[in-house]
User: Fold this.
Amino acid sequence: MKKAPEGKYAWTVTIGEKGQFVIPKQARELFDIKPGDSILLLGDVEKGIAIPPKSAFEGLMETIFGDKD
Assistant:
């Protein structure tokens, strides 16, 4: 089996009856996702679904609403 490039990961998840899935523990730890956190889910019908890191969400909010000052 070919080893993944450094810093690249892949996980599988199962979708429950309510359309929910659990983010794997390794992914939660790697991206510092804690209970109660909000995540941004992006979708593109041709490219698929992406869940960017929290830092991308914070940057997007700053772009939309301006500086934190």
